[in-house]
Amino acid sequence: MRTTGINHIALVCRDMQETVKFYTEVLDMPLIKTIALPDGGQHFFFDAGGAAVAFFWWPETPAAAPGIASVRKFPQDSKSAVGSMNHLAFDVPEGELSACLKRLEAAGVDHMPIVVNHDDSASGVAAEMHNGVFVRSVYFTDPNGIMLEFAANTRELGPADVKHAPMGATVEV
């Protein structure tokens, strides 16, 4: 078996009208499919450039559960619960990151005010761009509190980038 990519990710929103406005107007993702569910809910799909971002909505959806599900505020909430989604990253060209920041600012979207340079240093980030930076990111949240990211790889990743053994649920000290 071999997958050929991500078809879509399905999330849950608290307000479909607000979600449609954000994804179509702020993120410029066309609404490509809408479904009325038999239980009174809705399931809408947005074109994210080859894959889709989909949302479910029901009139009586359970409330957000910060610290349990993926509803977060960056950077203070860096962890999310087992089985939840931590964040969703959209691939963008590196030269578009400044324009992405400006678009978020113009729309009044809560976001990190800088482009984050991810590297292999002890802190995982660098103040300045250098040869060790492998991805540059802009973090923001949608109206549902879902952490999103515009991510631009600065180089191709490969076997040389795999340097850590996976840890188990319990680590002996």
UniProtKB/TrEMBL annotation:
<feature type="domain" description="VOC">
    <location>
        <begin position="5"/>
        <end position="153"/>
    </location>
</feature>
<dbReference type="InterPro" id="IPR029068">
    <property type="entry name" value="Glyas_Bleomycin-R_OHBP_Dase"/>
</dbReference>
<protein>
    <submittedName>
        <fullName>VOC family protein</fullName>
    </submittedName>
</protein>
<dbReference type="InterPro" id="IPR037523">
    <property type="entry name" value="VOC_core"/>
</dbReference>
<dbReference type="Pfam" id="PF00903">
    <property type="entry name" value="Glyoxalase"/>
</dbReference>
<dbReference type="InterPro" id="IPR004360">
    <property type="entry name" value="Glyas_Fos-R_dOase_dom"/>
</dbReference>
<dbReference type="InterPro" id="IPR050383">
    <property type="entry name" value="GlyoxalaseI/FosfomycinResist"/>
</dbReference>
